[in-house]
């Protein structure tokens, strides 16, 4: 009768037909011995990985209509994303000097003629795009799978809670109802059709990634039974540390036999496994992507001119040896045939001599093969034992990231990147600031997209918005391939390594991961919605085919920059340059995106069109919002003319200035200041503005070095806002924690709430960065004042030639903040207006400054005799640390105090509030007491 397999047992499958090969005829009609079979096997080739994939495609086909993910060919993404070459790019590549300069910005375009570099670029692009696509596919699958199984964490493991058990099920098993048990023991469950479909789709993705690896030559064997990716999280003796766990989880487990057929057996032996279905599935696909990428790169390297296999070198360098072994083999075979036909003694002698000659020839071949496999002077060994010129190997190490070529330098750079990513991600956590930081342009460009991004960000505080992915999967997958959707990895925690440490902190770790997800999904949603909105116009405008693809890629370049992301892979930035940029800038990719988006305004194509439209909408919308807010809140127009004043292009809420341009405000302010200074012929100061701007973007390691240097050399540290912190434990602790460790939103709350500026703390949470109404007055604000001539003669000449419009007194009257700063810093002894006096009073009450003591210490720093006359025996104890450090910062600029008031200022009559007058009288009394001492 018919044998019915047990439920859950895979049905027998018919192997693919294999071409009939005639069985070898045994010599002399005798049966073949083991020696004969061994000799025959040596002459046969094993089934190649490519053939294994082809066989399994026939034996166990995958339904491509249901398949959510399959990798693209190795070079497809690079071909599309790098765009066609152009005459301008060719000219730049052929111009020494320009090639190197442009190569720092876009190495990929300047290295198109370098085949090794392009292999590395293709590899980076392949890994970045495919990893993003795989994540979207798994999230899409998880949306459906979790809906039908309702996975929940029960007794420390993720288990299906919406499942019907069969009588054979054992709920007491450690891995009962986990994804492993569902797949390995389906006989224990009655699956619905939706549940069977969900399991089948996930299984097909894992099988497909294996076959894709086989098709590029990865020597792996597909397990015929169903299985799920296993990640060991605990060994029988001890728990694995994160490094070991990462290594085990990423090893290519599919290339070796499993120790246990079922996880139940592993559990009995003391092993524990990852049970979250999504985590294991994502890990499997990402590991396969890296394997395919590595193998494809090796194949491209092997095809480079000058790269030789040991056998190829043997044939080219020792042709006589190769010919000799060929002739010896033929002679031996002929002698053997003759002996088997006629076993005469003379034929046996000839056979033995032929076999001896063959053995000698084999020994010579073996020796020559060893020699051919050794690199000569000027040569080095490449992966898979190939030999190439040393300069070619150096190029491969420079451009191609392969595990067998990783050096100690690579380990160090990777550690540095992990550390900077840890600090940067921690600083930018615990807020919803992406909406007005990365999404500032989107706010003006597409309000619907901005609000959808904010909605998904709120949803992501709970979990990944898989419903959004499932609904938009096709367009998101296309957007990934066109470069429009780019994950902001530099602001995200990692799963393993240094940058994952905060996520493992109890309670706080889950909270930080939640805000990290919110940040990520605002950006991904914004990019998706922008791409959806513009995509239909592109498709209607261009003919189908490569022209449409090129237009969409061009559009994608602008979209990813609009949301503050840039792709190092598409730019072709090498790991070494990547590390240098991470050290140099706080957020290098974000900095590139902002700068690149502004430069893209001047380019052509769809990228330039999108950039100009978005940039124009932001400028118009931001300016309108600034004017409206200023009139509504302050009943006055905003400062639109003087970029050196704190309130330039801003509106005031309470005691805080806000702007409507987000991360672009520093760029606009710097550009405005440079324009003013250049128009006045002050090129040195204009260059200094660029220097100060770059310093404000400095990376965390440089900030730490600068902080340590200032504390060690100057005895204090000056923040970017101008605040000075003394070299005391409290001051150094505030500097380090404030600059390096505590999230920015918490820093601002700790600073602004005690100062009575809660609006600044609230704004920081949502990305609205505020500046104090009366900030610490950086010295640069005084530059326009000191540029005005102090003498009446020089002033008259300057007014006559039009270089100066106001006298110093008039300038102070028009700018109360400058007037107050000059007084507080000790440059002048009078105040010109009541608003300036109110500012001084506000700051003195807030900081506890003694203005007369400020002047006394300035004089002491200028002249030791003056210090003794004032009777200040020990300034460091008599005056507060905050006062001394503020004064040191003032004098370090090299400005000399004004001992006398100029003629142009002497006629001015100060007009200040009565409270200010009382305070200044008290200062006079204090200084008189000091003089008497």
From TrEMBL:
Residues 1-31, 893-913 are annotated as: Disordered. Residues 8-29 have a biased composition (Pro residues). This is Large polyvalent protein associated domain-containing protein.
